[in-house]
Amino acid sequence: MAGQFIVDHETAAPGEVPFYLVLDGRCAVTTESATVTLSTGDLLLVSRGEAHQVTAPSGRRFRFSDESGPIFTTRRTVGVKPDLDLFCGHYHFDTAAGELLFRLLPALVHVTPNAAATTLADLLRGEARFAGPGSAAVVSALCDAMLAMGLRSRPEQRLDNPALWTAIGDEALGKVVSGIVERPGDSWTIERMAETASMSRSTFLRRFNTRTGTTAATLLITIRMMVAADLLTNSDRSMARIAADVGYSSESAFSQAFRATVGMPPAQYRKNSVNHE
Fold first, then answer.
1. Which is deepest, 34, 76, 99, 122, by most CB within 10 Å?
2. Is the Cβ–Cβ distance between 4 and 21 less than 8 Å?
3. How many domains would you assign to the chain?
4. What does the pLDDT look like over 187-214, one tens digit per residue?
């Protein structure tokens, strides 16, 4: 695109999370509550899928056209050299685990440029221009890598508020996250988390809250419910077995926690998953 333009995007469909990667140039994304300015290499996730505008506020207005390709549709300004190259798309999820992951993120996740992001932008630009055999698979894999990079980015690389998953970018806190993901049924007390992170209890709590903007208890219950949601969907284990697998000795306590986190009882969630299939 070149010059001044405004592109409106309606609220995303359920299970869709729009993203933008600026391959070259500058633009802005505006929601009802915020405006984020993006520059070359910047990644933006619209985590809640809210309605938004993509704009370039200065310069002349030019006519543009949409060109369909074998993989991508390219919106291109007609008759003038572009000054913005913007890669747009969305992530799709159909599980409670995916919903919980994106719910934990800020409404707008803006990751600043770094060397890895620049390399990724170059790769995506090349595949978008090539658009040949295998490009769809390559681009899909690169977009997955881009999401992982955004979630693990360290606080000094981010322009938004801290979020739970920034703990992954902290080596000590990352050990806690990995441990809970691998063994969600274990007894994860604050003392054990602190010991895993090689910190005192008070230092661990302070560092966790500072780095993520939330609590260790939120981390624990969310990971457990994400694991439970996948077990409900992809296994025939009994409710009592799943409750034990994610650290609950009481099926009723598990059901209460799952409902509070996901919005429905686990039995109803399993039934809906079967019907969806």
1. 99
2. no
3. 2
4. 999 999 999 999 999 999 998 888 777 7
